């Protein structure tokens, strides 16, 4: 392969628009990989925190003691632990001021649902970008390919005798844009599908905990 047909040579000789397309796809790919590694660490930490809290919650310790241990920490609670802290705090407050046990339980559940919604929003951060990158990157790359091939055929129309050697570099540089689009899209799609499944499992665990904790509080009220 000649120097002009090398990967770097084709990229350097591409038209300005195709270069811009490649740059956009490169930035999308780099940002996607950053989010992929960051989200992987976040979800792993969320699973570990949920496992650790469930062990404490079902170990037979008193709820008051568990609540005091959580509130004594310098950092704010997150995940399942945060839902428990918010719910039990509201339960104590309502129990002291409201005589109606049903109202106390409903208020506690409402606060926990709000906390659950916040945790869901936090878990789903970055997923929309991965979905967008996975769905649009191939089309961005295809746009660069179409533009590059169009320029190649336009150049052919300006010569008397067309040869494969004349059109090959233009088509090759255009196809690089498609390859870069797929390179940006495939990891983003895989990560989105995997992380969406993991987020859904965590949401189900949080939601189940809200129901179980509500049942425990209801028994304490009766």
UniProtKB/TrEMBL annotation:
<feature type="transmembrane region" description="Helical">
    <location>
        <begin position="127"/>
        <end position="150"/>
    </location>
</feature>
<keyword id="KW-1003">Cell membrane</keyword>
<dbReference type="GO" id="GO:0051301">
    <property type="term" value="P:cell division"/>
</dbReference>
<keyword id="KW-0997">Cell inner membrane</keyword>
<comment type="similarity">
    <text>Belongs to the ExbB/TolQ family.</text>
</comment>
<keyword id="KW-0131">Cell cycle</keyword>
<keyword id="KW-0812">Transmembrane</keyword>
<dbReference type="GO" id="GO:0005886">
    <property type="term" value="C:plasma membrane"/>
</dbReference>
<keyword id="KW-0472">Membrane</keyword>
<protein>
    <recommendedName>
        <fullName>Tol-Pal system protein TolQ</fullName>
    </recommendedName>
</protein>
<keyword id="KW-1133">Transmembrane helix</keyword>
<feature type="domain" description="MotA/TolQ/ExbB proton channel">
    <location>
        <begin position="80"/>
        <end position="207"/>
    </location>
</feature>
<dbReference type="GO" id="GO:0017038">
    <property type="term" value="P:protein import"/>
</dbReference>
<dbReference type="GO" id="GO:0043213">
    <property type="term" value="P:bacteriocin transport"/>
</dbReference>
<comment type="function">
    <text>Part of the Tol-Pal system, which plays a role in outer membrane invagination during cell division and is important for maintaining outer membrane integrity.</text>
</comment>
<dbReference type="InterPro" id="IPR014163">
    <property type="entry name" value="Tol-Pal_TolQ"/>
</dbReference>
<dbReference type="InterPro" id="IPR050790">
    <property type="entry name" value="ExbB/TolQ_transport"/>
</dbReference>
<keyword id="KW-0132">Cell division</keyword>
<dbReference type="InterPro" id="IPR002898">
    <property type="entry name" value="MotA_ExbB_proton_chnl"/>
</dbReference>
<feature type="transmembrane region" description="Helical">
    <location>
        <begin position="170"/>
        <end position="192"/>
    </location>
</feature>
<dbReference type="Pfam" id="PF01618">
    <property type="entry name" value="MotA_ExbB"/>
</dbReference>
<feature type="transmembrane region" description="Helical">
    <location>
        <begin position="16"/>
        <end position="37"/>
    </location>
</feature>
<comment type="subunit">
    <text>The Tol-Pal system is composed of five core proteins: the inner membrane proteins TolA, TolQ and TolR, the periplasmic protein TolB and the outer membrane protein Pal. They form a network linking the inner and outer membranes and the peptidoglycan layer.</text>
</comment>
């Amino acid at each position: 392969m000649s120097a002009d047909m090398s990967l770097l040579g084709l990229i350097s000789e591409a038209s300005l628009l195709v270069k811009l397309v490649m740059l956009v796809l490169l930035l999308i790919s780099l940002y996607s990989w950053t989010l992929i590694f960051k989200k992987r660490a976040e979800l792993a930490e969320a699973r570990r925190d949920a496992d650790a809290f469930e062990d404490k919650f079902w170990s037979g310790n008193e709820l008051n003691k568990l609540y005091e241990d959580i509130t004594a920490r310098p950092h704010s609670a997150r995940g399942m632990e945060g839902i428990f802290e918010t719910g039990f705090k509201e339960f104590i407050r309502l129990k002291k001021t409201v005589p109606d046990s049903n109202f106390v339980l409903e208020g506690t559940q409402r606060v926990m649902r709000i906390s659950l919604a916040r945790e869901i929003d936090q878990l789903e951060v970055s997923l929309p970008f991965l979905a967008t990158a996975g769905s649009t990157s191939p089309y961005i790359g295809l746009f660069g390919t179409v533009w590059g091939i169009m320029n190649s055929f336009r150049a052919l129309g300006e010569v008397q005798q067309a040869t494969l050697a004349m059109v090959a570099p233009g088509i090759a540089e255009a196809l690089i844009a498609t390859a870069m689009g797929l390179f940006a899209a495939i990891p983003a799609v895989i990560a989105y599908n995997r992380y969406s499944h993991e987020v859904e499992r965590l949401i189900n665990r949080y939601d189940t905990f809200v129901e179980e904790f509500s049942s425990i509080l209801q028994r304490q009220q009766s």
